[in-house]
Design a protein that fits this description.
- The protein has 369 residues and is mostly helical.
- The protein has 13 helices and six strands.
- A hairpin with a 2-residue loop joins β4 and β5.
- α3 packs antiparallel against α5, α7 packs across α8 and α8 crosses α10.
- It is globular.
Length: 369
C-alpha cells in the first residue's frame, strides 16, 4: 500500500509539472505571436531589404555553427560525451589560417611590368587553399592529441569525469593560446578580391543589399564539407566503422574493427571541420583573439542539441536554424541586437525542457539509452 501511495504521489507531481511546462509553453508562444504582430503588422519598422540582410547574415553564421556542431555530434555519437574544448580547436585552426595569410603577405612577387605585390594577391586562390589546408590540418592534430591525452585514459570512467576533463582542456587551450599569441586582437588580411564588405549588389526596393563574397564562400564550402561528410559516413569503410563503434564498441572490436583508431579518426575529422570553420570565421568576420572560439563553440553545442545530439543531419539543420534565429530574432521580436546571444541560450533551455531529443531526434545506441 505504501508503494502504491508513493507511486500515486509521483504521478501527481509529474502531471502537475507537465501542466506547468505546457502552460509556460503556451504563454511563451502567445508572447512571441504578440511581438511578431507588433513588429510586422502594427509597427512595420523594417523593410524587405533589412530582412534580406538579416537572412544572409543568418545563413552565413549558421553555416559556421553547423560545421562546429557536427564535431560535437560525431564525438557524442561514439563516446557519449560532450567535447567542450571543440570551440578552442576551432580557434586554433583560425590562428593557423591567420599565420598562413601573414606569411603569404610577407612574400613579395615582382610582376613582368615591374609592379610588386604580395603572394596573397598574386595567387589568391592558392593562398586561400593553403590557409584552409593548414588550418584544418592543425586543428585535426589538436583534436587527435586531445583525445589521446585528455579523453582516452578516462574512457571507462563515470560520465562526469570526461566532462570535467573537457572543460579543463578548454581552459588549457585558451590559456595556451593566450601565452602563445598574446591577448591582442588580430585582423585577418584577406586577398583583395575577397575583401570583407565587398560583394554582389542586389537591388531591393531601390536599396542595395550586399551579398558578401566571404559569406558566399563560407556557405558554399560549408555545404560541400557537410555533403562530403555525409557521403563518407554512409558509403566509406571508415564511415561504417564509425557507425559500428557508435552502436557497440565490444561487438565492433570482435568484428575486427580497431576501436581506438576509429575514435581517433573521429576526433581528427571533427577537428578538421572545426579548423575549416575557424578559417571561415576569420575570413568573414576578420577579428581573431584567444577567446574567439568559446562563444561559437557553446552556440554550436546549442545547435547540436537543437537538431538532435548524435544526429549528423540534425547538427546541420540545428546550426542553420540557430544562425537564422540569432540573426532575425532580435528584429522580429523588436529587442536589442545585443541580446542575440541570449536568444541562442534561451533556445537551448526551451529545447531541453520541451523536446530534449531535438528536431530530428537523438541517435543513440541501445547500450546508451
Amino acid at each position: 500500500m505504501k508503494v502504491l501511495k508513493k507511486n500515486d504521489r509521483r504521478l501527481k507531481r509529474s502531471s502537475v509539472g507537465k501542466m506547468i511546462r505546457n502552460l509556460f509553453g503556451v504563454l511563451a508562444v502567445l508572447f512571441i505571436i504578440w511581438r511578431l504582430y507588433l513588429v510586422f503588422i502594427v509597427q512595420n519598422n523594417y523593410g524587405p531589404e533589412t530582412w534580406t540582410r538579416l537572412l544572409i547574415a543568418g545563413l552565413v553564421i549558421g553555416s559556421v555553427y553547423a560545421l562546429i556542431a557536427i564535431g560535437y555530434t560525431l564525438v557524442y555519437g561514439i563516446l557519449f560525451m560532450i567535447n567542450f574544448a571543440h570551440g578552442e580547436v576551432m580557434m586554433l585552426g583560425s590562428f593557423a589560417g591567420f599565420f598562413v595569410f601573414e606569411a603569404t603577405n610577407a612574400i613579395n612577387i615582382t610582376a613582368a611590368d615591374g609592379s610588386v605585390t604580395s603572394l596573397t594577391n598574386a595567387q589568391p586562390v592558392l593562398s586561400i587553399i593553403l590557409a584552409f589546408l593548414v588550418g584544418m590540418t592543425f586543428s585535426a592534430m589538436v583534436g587527435f592529441f586531445l583525445e589521446k591525452i585528455a579523453y582516452r585514459p578516462l574512457r571507462k570512467a563515470p560520465r562526469l569525469i570526461p566532462l570535467i576533463s573537457a572543460i579543463g582542456a578548454s581552459f588549457a587551450l585558451q590559456n595556451a593560446a593566450l601565452l602563445l599569441f598574446s591577448p591582442q586582437t588580430r585582423n585577418y588580411t584577406n586577398p583583395e578580391f575577397l575583401a570583407r564588405g565587398a560583394g554582389w549588389r542586389i537591388m531591393i526596393n531601390e536599396t542595395a543589399v550586399i551579398l558578401p563574397y566571404t559569406g558566399v564562400l563560407t556557405m558554399v564550402l560549408s555545404i560541400l564539407l557537410m555533403v562530403g561528410l555525409l557521403l563518407m559516413v554512409k558509403r566509406t569503410r571508415l564511415g561504417k566503422s564509425m557507425r559500428a563503434v557508435a552502436m557497440d564498441k565490444d561487438t565492433a572490436a570482435l568484428m575486427g574493427i580497431d576501436v581506438n583508431q576509429t575514435i581517433s579518426n573521429t576526433f581528427i575529422i571533427s577537428g578538421a571541420l572545426a579548423g575549416a570553420a575557424g578559417v571561415m570565421w576569420g575570413l568573414h568576420n576578420g577579428i581573431l583573439h584567444y577567446f574567439v572560439g568559446f562563444l561559437p563553440g557553446i552556440k554550436a553545442f546549442t545547435a547540436a542539441v537543437l537538431g538532435g545530439i548524435g544526429n549528423v543531419p540534425g547538427a546541420m539543420l540545428g546550426g542553420m536554424v540557430l544562425g537564422l534565429l540569432e540573426a532575425i530574432g532580435p528584429a522580429a521580436l523588436d529587442i536589442s541586437f545585443q541580446l542575440k546571444d541570449v536568444i541562442a541560450f534561451v533556445i537551448m533551455i526551451v529545447i531541453l525542457v520541451f523536446k530534449p531529443s531535438g528536431i530530428l531526434g537523438e541517435v543513440l545506441s541501445e547500450e546508451k539509452v
